[in-house]
Amino acid sequence: MSNEHRSAAAEKIRIENNKLSKRVIREAGTAIVDYNMIEDGDKVMVCLSGGKDSYGMLDILMTLQKRAPVKFDIMAVNLDQKQPGFPEHILPEYLTKIGVPFHIENQDTYSIVKRLIPEGKTTCSLCSRLRRGILYRVADELGATKIALGHHRDDILATFFLNLFYAAKLKTMPPKLVSDDGRHTVIRPLAYIAEKDLIAYAEMKQFPIIPCNLCGSQENLKRQEINQMIRAWEKESPKKVWNIFKSLSAVAPSHLMDRQLFDFVGLKPSGLADENGDKAFDAEIFPDLEPATELPDDPIQSVSRHKTIFMQPQS
Fold first, then answer.
1. What does the angle CA 149 – CA 136 – CA 180 come to, to the nearest 5 degrees?
2. Closest CA to 221 of 175, 135, 155
3. By the 8 A CB rule, do 27 and 192 touch?
């Protein structure tokens, strides 16, 4: 390859990387504003596992911290679960290098999980419960006002389908919630970001990824089956996947069947026209069955200009 071709290829990569950075930072900032995840004076505990998602979340939040009109602190926290062969030096070295305050919590949950869960059975549920309790305690000790988790758009979609297929519930991971002990606010700043973008972002940033040897090797998990389904749909039609995701924030309770959510029993005609009422005898119209058009750079399309304030540099 000639020097000219190498230069052109390098410039193309630079442009694509710049677009990727802008996209993930914009989408994280949008999600934070949409759900009021971070407020002035917050101390955000960023849960860092050593995987691509949590590395990306920390990096993006550090960028937004410099640009946001609100002041907030970041504390990176890693739970060292004492998995055999875990390279415990990597995270402290990386966090020291980038200059972020951090805390490493050492708790041998690995031995507990291996002792209580039979060989070949899924360890995720018990591991998650143990990890959650420890991180809530650490958040109290550190004075954190928000706990940030690195779940992305595809995690939210997969959870939705897992609940739909195997629990008969319309339920998923919300971008923001109060913890089950009622004492902590948990946020998911990556809620709008597709996993493929986080994979590309991690490659671009060259994060020192640490694999999870406890659950990462369990290839037959239902979640992975769902993820394969989502990837197949995205390959067939990216718009389909984004529409499923957007539908989670465009719910019409009166057009579902939950009697706890909507008073069907007491429903009676009011005599007043209602544009949102069910047009029972009309043909169903689904706009996106029309031929697919090219996706815009930002497929969320839910953000008015004033909502981008979180991402603007401070004056």
1. 85
2. 155
3. yes
